[in-house]
Amino acid sequence: MYVCMYVCIDQMVREALRDDRKVMMTKSSSIDLVTQTDQKVEQLIIKSVKEKFPTHRFIGEESVAAGEPCDLTDFPTWIIDPIDGTTNFVHAFPFVAVSIGFCVNKQCEFGVVYSCLQDQMFTARRGRGAFCNGEPLQVSTEEDISRSIIATEFGSNRETEAIDRMFSSLRKIVCIPVQGVRSAGSAAVNMCLVASGCVEAYYEIGIHVWDVAAGSLLVTEAGGVLMDVEGGVVDLMSRRIIAANNRTLAERIVKEIDSFSPTRDDAPLPKQ
Ligand SMILES: O=P(O)(O)OC[C@@]1(O)O[C@H](CO)[C@@H](O)[C@@H]1O
Ligand SMILES: [Mg+2]
Ligand SMILES: [Mg+2]
């Protein structure tokens, strides 16, 4: 099933990159884009899984956008971002990923991130390590943030308060100083870069559970840590995350972040 699904998705994304990168609609803001490929990939994944596991549940980015609930329960649940980096996809910017996390009892059991244009298949199973195209992954051993590259994203929220806090945090981190700040335009790819050891840490306020479910397992199975931006235990529904190579750097980043709390992914939908 999985090989067939992978081949279909790979072909679907590559053909669409060539022939159809049109924006179909926007969601939370004029820059929160959706294409037909986002929807077709998510439908293909859900259909393929349902055929084999009809009782399993799903949290899919585009299904949630269409009104499906975003509730993570103890049931086996597939958490899907069909295209992480849709804006990149529309612009043919080369970081476009399919992210699938599988959770049971609210714990990720395996995660897959396929970076389409790099043809890199990142995989992790809980307790069995993280891999890229079969090669084991290990986070960076760097303990000094002034010798680190930090990744972050600004997402699609342009509310003044959120932007002010994001830029205040960014300014403080840049001026530590760190050796570099990067934005792949995909949370999933940023987390794969942490798991691969080429970026020491990634943080963001504004992500969704589908952006980071698979990547969170990749990071921990590669020896890294996850933390809330205020230093506590990460909550994948809180829309806040730090994924780092070690606690030292994660705690250092906590000190510089002006945190805020976006509406949770599992917040009750506003009454109609
Ligand atoms: O909408 P998409 O393409 O699935 O998600 C793209 C994205 O920019 O939104 C997140 C929140 O800002 C980012 O971290 C993530 O990479
Ligand atoms: Mg995403
Ligand atoms: Mg997406």
UniProtKB/TrEMBL annotation:
Required co-factors: Mg(2+)
PROSITE patterns (UniProt xref): IMP_1, IMP_2
CDD domains, alphabetized: IMPase
Predominant place of localization: cytoplasm
Pathway: Polyol metabolism; myo-inositol biosynthesis; myo-inositol from D-glucose 6-phosphate: step 2/2
Binding-site residues, Mg(2+): 61, 81, 83-84, 211
GO BP field: inositol biosynthetic process; phosphatidylinositol phosphate biosynthetic process; signal transduction
EC number: 3.1.3.25
Matches recorded under Pfam families: Inositol_P
Keywords: Cytoplasm, Hydrolase, Lithium, Magnesium, Metal-binding
GO molecular function: fructose-1-phosphatase activity; glucose-1-phosphatase activity; glucose-6-phosphatase activity; glycerol-2-phosphatase activity; inositol monophosphate 1-phosphatase activity; inositol monophosphate 3-phosphatase activity; inositol monophosphate 4-phosphatase activity; metal ion binding
Cell wall biogenesis/degradation is among the record's keywords: no
Recorded catalytic activity of this chain's protein: 1D-myo-inositol 3-phosphate + H2O = myo-inositol + phosphate; 1D-myo-inositol 6-phosphate + H2O = myo-inositol + phosphate; adenosine 2'-phosphate + H2O = adenosine + phosphate; glycerol 2-phosphate + H2O = glycerol + phosphate
Gene3D superfamilies linked to this entry: 3.40.190.80, Fructose-1,6-Bisphosphatase, subunit A, domain 1 (3.30.540.10)
Enzymatic class: hydrolase
Gene Ontology CC: one annotated term: cytoplasm
InterPro entries reported for this sequence: IMPase (IPR033942), Inositol_monoP_metal-BS (IPR020583), Inositol_monoPase_Li-sen (IPR020552), Inositol_monophosphatase-like (IPR000760), Inositol_monophosphatase_CS (IPR020550)
Keyword Nucleotide-binding: no
Cellular location(s): Cytoplasm
Self-association state and partner proteins as the record states: Homodimer.
Family: Belongs to the inositol monophosphatase superfamily.
Protein name per UniProt: Inositol-1-monophosphatase
Organism: Scophthalmus maximus (Turbot)
Lineage per the UniProt record: Eukaryota, Metazoa, Chordata, Craniata, Vertebrata
